[in-house]
């Protein structure tokens, strides 16, 4: 097959989503993480906040008011405008912004958006090319539709607290905002898929990303297990990841993350560590048998690993091509040799002279690059963006005076 050498007629852009305008009415982590992913691909994300601002602006340590740690983690590369959507002028301003937007995403309960006249039917009638993304707790039409949802609630409902109970004996949530972030990734790819479909059809659409359904799907990838075979198996939950012995192995001086997985890995591990009798043990000779006896296998491996220091096992696994790594502490990540060598962390100094540290997008694209930009102050871009949307200077100034809109004190029309 010959490859065409004709130059492409497509315009060259500096980022994958350059020219895509997103109105982001989400808050906390679920929605902001999704919109940050899209901003990292080059979309112009305009964060629409209430006069009180996103609650995460006040979560964690801060150098200045409204720029707290959790907010910084999910709001880089965005602009911020501040509107009181209960005010008719602010609502009209948002509609004006939505008329030229590619995406509007929100995490407000659907009934509240309808009461404000900002439901998807209304906005799609005005702008048929709009992607209207509802990031909800529960799917419309379901028994739980319209209920509020936070990460802890969804972790509990989706079975995470239960699988923690099976493994440890105590119902617990994962010590990370797992539901918000997992569903945020799902929301980002759903929006990208809708944008791709619009390229083909010219039509926008309403899309819904419900947390409960999304997280349940995520958990059941491996844990539906025998229930994939209704009437033939009552087993639910993947034994390998549920055993209490699935954890970093304790060495004689610390911990190591070691993952013999294939038949060859386990034969090599046992025979080369001085325990050839276990390599021939029928309980451990195939993946199906190892899965059946996973607790015994991991307990036995743990006893063997405990006899030597971490460095020994890292060298052993490197020599015998068994996957292994050190168990990083959170405080180790900024000095991790790999993360340093790929410039994963970057420091930004803002106009107040404060230094902030951000991660970059983990994704690298040959023809798209977006460097991290400082997260915005509350209402930093209100005046400039409303004027850019076509509102007159007089109307915008009146909105700012009445409280329908709010502008950060140090901002200017140049933003």
From TrEMBL:
SUPFAM superfamilies: CoA-transferase family III (CaiB/BaiF) (SSF89796)
Keywords assigned by UniProt, alphabetized: Transferase
Domain of life per record: Bacteria
Transmembrane segments: none
Record GO terms (molecular function): CoA-transferase activity
First and last residue of the signal peptide: none
Keyword Transferase (UniProt): yes
Keyword Transferase included in the entry's annotation: yes
Protein name listed in UniProt: CoA transferase
Source organism (scientific name): Sheuella amnicola
